[in-house]
Design brief:
The complex is a heterodimer of chains A (about 160) and B (about 210). Chain A is α+β, with helices and mostly antiparallel strands and about 160 residues long. In chain A, about 20% of the residues lie in helices and about 35% in strands. Chain A has 2 helices and 10 strands; from the N terminus they run E-E-E-E-E-H-E-H-E-E-E-E. In chain B, helix 1 crosses helix 4 and helix 3 (about 85-95) packs across helix 4 (about 115-140). Classes of the chains: A alpha+beta (about 160), B alpha+beta (about 210).
Chain lengths: ~160, ~210
């Protein structure tokens, strides 16, 4: 039985097989699974916001933002022995939970999170091989380091394996 | 200088709590009127708390929850959300609405009929507006409130919406728990209020507190 390792909001964790990483109830947040399939080393990040530059640098939680969290998590994966050239990514989340029509930040934050995640992965030359993003519902993500499968669960919508 | 919810002192938290209490009183009066006095509302518990504590109070991150969201802006900016777990949502709407078909259209997954959803949206609207109204009255600030938006999903996913919108000012929220007391049951509803830090400062100033 693999150990279940819980990743909180604005948090990331890296681990080796056998481990299942899980993060609960992603709304417009995005969960990013990064994997070295040969060594079965992986990480799961739960980001809240697209860019750290939007906020002042004092007291900054780097794990909260797509641009800083992914870079730091990849560094930690490399420290565990992962080969940066072998890393692949799968992402889920970035929903719009409320159907707000006004031109407000909340209407688009999910989309902006997904865009920033993709930009950051692109800059790090990590291929995005699967995604389950957008729409209007919450998602829980399980990332099994044995298989590299990302399992996405939603209320009343069943389970998707990617 | 107040820059974060974490920096609120006891006095300032007491002031927010008192606004919560007054808001709840107004909300109870407003609701009793439309509910034909079949439901009483207890004095609320008001806490300034972090995200995880608030989510756990709702039954955990994945608990199926109904959320009604209102934006407010003008001289004060923020969001207020009314949250109700699924069982309590069913129970409270069953008191309000006796549907002819006995709610046949509600599937095994506990979905609510459109009529019941609409009723919960209106309860959320009244509660949220009552809080904002008491805030505006106490402070003399001019505040506009949006129409209500409703969603049914995981508690954590709903709660993250205001946290994200105001992600720059820490992960604390004002969490208000109220009990709806009916003849047979006590049902628990929750309200979270999240205001911009500038708004918090303005509220404190208007009420004569140092910031």
């Amino acid at each position: 039985m693999s150990e279940l390792l819980v990743v909180g909001i604005s948090d990331y964790k890296v681990a080796r097989n056998p481990t299942v990483l899980v993060t609960y109830a992603l709304g417009s947040c995005v969960g990013i699974c990064i994997y070295d399939s040969r060594l079965k080393i992986g990480g799961l990040s739960h980001i809240m916001l697209p860019e750290s530059s939007m906020f002042n640098k004092n007291d900054l939680n780097r794990m909260k933002f797509a641009d800083t969290a992914i870079v730091d998590m990849v560094q930690d994966l490399i420290k565990l022995g992962a080969d940066p050239r072998r890393l692949t990514a799968k992402i889920a989340g970035g929903a719009q939970m409320f159907d707000v029509q006004q031109a407000s930040m909340i209407g688009t934050i999910g989309d902006r999170n997904v865009c920033s995640v993709k930009d950051t992965l692109h800059k790090l030359k990590i291929p995005l091989i699967a995604e389950d993003t957008g729409l209007n519902y919450g998602r829980t993500v399980y990332f099994d380091l044995e298989t590299g499968v990302m399992k996405v669960q939603s209320l009343g919508r069943g389970t998707r394996e990617l | 200088m107040l820059t974060n919810y974490d920096e609120l002192n006891d006095m300032q938290i007491d002031v927010l709590r008192e606004i919560g209490n007054i808001g709840a009183g107004n909300a109870a009066t407003a609701l009793a009127t439309i509910l034909d006095e079949k439901v009483e509302i207890s004095l609320p518990k008001v806490r300034i708390t972090d995200f995880n504590t608030a989510v756990n109070a709702l039954g955990g991150a994945e608990a199926m929850t109904v959320g009604v969201l209102l934006n407010f802006n003008g001289e004060a900016n923020g969001m207020i959300m009314f949250l109700l777990n699924m069982q309590d949502a069913q129970a409270i709407t069953n008191i309000l609405i006796q549907e002819e078909n006995g709610g046949e259209e509600e599937g095994a997954d506990g979905r609510l009929s459109d009529l019941k959803l609409s009723a919960i949206k209106e309860i959320g609207n009244i509660l949220g507006s009552s809080y904002i109204n008491s805030l505006a009255t106490l402070t003399g600030l001019n505040i506009n409130i949006s129409i209500p938006y409703i969603a049914i999903d995981m508690a954590g996913a709903l709660m993250s919406v205001p946290i994200i919108e105001f992600g720059s000012i820490g992960d604390k929220v004002m969490f208000i728990e109220e009990c709806f007391i009916t003849e047979e049951d006590r049902l628990s509803g929750n309200i979270i209020l999240f205001a911009e830090i500038e708004t918090l400062k303005l509220i404190m100033e208007r009420l004569g507190l140092e910031v």
